[in-house]
UniProtKB/TrEMBL annotation:
Alphabetic keyword roster: Ligase, Nucleus, Ubl conjugation pathway
Record GO biological process: protein sumoylation
This protein's pathway: Protein modification; protein sumoylation; Protein modification; protein ubiquitination
Keyword set includes Ribosomal protein: no
InterPro entries, per database record: ThiF/MoeB/HesA (IPR045886), ThiF_NAD_FAD-bd (IPR000594), Ub-E1_IAD_1 (IPR042449), Ubiquitin-activating_enz (IPR035985), UBQ/SUMO-activ_enz_E1-like (IPR000011)
Protein name as annotated: Ubiquitin-like 1-activating enzyme E1A
Start and end residues of each THIF-type NAD/FAD binding fold domain: 20-352
Subcellular location: Nucleus
GO molecular function, one term: SUMO activating enzyme activity
Family that this chain belongs to: Belongs to the ubiquitin-activating E1 family.
Pfam families with a match to the protein in the record: ThiF
Amino acid sequence: MSKAEAPDGAGNVEIDENLHSRQLAVYGREAMKRMATSSVLITGANGLGVEIAKNVILAGVRSVTVHDTAAVALTDLSAQFYLTEQDIGRNRAEACRDKLAELNTAVNVAAATGPLSEDFVRQFQVVVATTAPLAEAKRLDALCHPAGIAFVWAQTRGVFARVFTDFGPSFTVYDVNGEEPHSGIVASVSSGCPAMVTCVEDERLEFQDGELVTFSEVVGMDKLNTSGPFKVKNCKASSFELDVDTSGWGEYVRGGIVVQAKQPKSLAFRKLEQAEVGRPPRPADAADAAKLTALAEALNASLPAGSPAKLEAVDGAVAAALAHGASAEVNPMAAMFGGVVGQEVVKAVSGKFHPIFQWLYFDSMESLPSPEQLKEAGGGGADEYEPLGCRWG
């Protein structure tokens, strides 16, 4: 976890095993205790924001604060499932707080409507932004990064989505994959450097070169049981080598179990940077689509030769599709990325599983009609493409 990890006392937290039995099996007790002492801020109570809030509340963190300064509009009803027409005009966070709180009474759910000051933000272990423009996302990230507060910026635009994560300059993943440690039954150990370890052939070994292992119950070369962990190399189906000299450790007699020693992984995240127009392109606006394409081409041209992000040419069709749908929030995309980002929040507070490092981009271009199909369908003005009632909703 980061420097802003859950408050001390996580070891004294009691986990409701009936409520969280399946999560305990996946995350483990220690990770669940860290989750149960963590507070999460989600700014943006749109469709994506409420999906994330739902998943994080069900996961069992200590508290979730949903923040928004906007009032409910008719367009919000396309993807925000906790809002109704009766909520129009109310603050979005306040309008959905009570329904979110019903999901898990063990989680303290609050609504916030004021400015996100530094003092306010520093109360949390994770900050998620779903409606923040780039300038505001950069400001929040600048507050979070030096404090080790995990920051996630996520947006869906029509059938496009992106996720940015910054878990601070020094974040520890306690368990990269959540799998049980690999193991094997020892059949023999050679004396020398490197030492060859052979295991019984009942099961194929899953050790990888560079991993660390520990030994127990070895008879005759007892130092294997008390030393280590040892780095393995030249891993085969039933054997591997130890990067150590065992020539003075006596002769191997019998027995022994070798187990993978899972090691924490430290990640150094970078901050978010750079901005342009400040609003999404208008739907069905050829000029905005052309402008977005030109911006993408200029950005691509500015990248140094050999950069992994540099393209041979910007795909104008992709840029145009993004521009035409950028104002729409599509419920299936909000649901999908609510799950993705919810998992990133859980990773941030638990230290379990490797997080996104640091960008994720997704599109579902194949879901869109062709320009010819759109033309044949006809339609009126820009209101045709409003999220509520539009052909994508």
